[in-house]
Amino acid sequence: MGKLVDIWMKSLSIGINDIDNQHRRLFEIMEEVMLALRGGSDGGKIEKIIDSLVEYTAEHFTFEEDLLESNDYPNLVEHQAFHKEFTDNLNNLKVDFQKKRCRSC
Predict the structure, then answer these.
(1) What are the domain boundaries of the chain?
(2) How many separate helices (H) and strands (E) can be counted in the chain?
(3) What average pLDDT does range 75-96 have in this prediction?
(4) How many whole angstroms separate alpha carbon 105 and alpha carbon 99?
(5) Treating both helix axes as pointing N-terminal to C-terminal, what angle do 76-103 and 43-70 enclose, rounded to 10 degrees?
(6) Contact, 88 vs 57, CB < 8 A?
């Protein structure tokens, strides 16, 4: 299987450089999380990577939604709902990881 970044490059480019670069970075961070989990990295390192993903995702979604709004994107509300669902899932992942990490402390 190829890297997530390679998969992204082939299938998700929308032709807006700023957005494409941010999407690529999101995939890079997600891949860092997966590699850290598979490689048995310590919990602190994994948590820092997850925190980085949460922070970068929030920054990206704000940037993207502002861009969509300024261009009168007709499906903005639906897109924002997708962002909220993604963010909620990501925050749940973070909380779940923290709970599991604390059990092994």
Answers:
(1) 4-103
(2) 4, 0
(3) 96
(4) 10
(5) 170
(6) no
Q: Which residues contact 29 (CB under 8 A, 6 or more apart)?
A: 49, 52, 53, 56
d(CA 98, CA 20): 31
What is residue 1's predicted lDDT score, i.e. its pLDDT?
Answer: 45
4-103 under CATH 1.20.120.50, yes or no: yes
Non-local CB neighbours of 81 within 8 Å, separated by 6+ positions: none
Cα 22 to Cα 60: distance, rounded to the nearest angstrom: 7
Query: Tokens 């993604």 appear where?
Result: 86
Say what the pLDDT of residue 103 is. 64
Which pLDDT score is estimated for 17? 92
- Per the CB < 8 A criterion, the answer to whether 18 and 37 are in contact is no
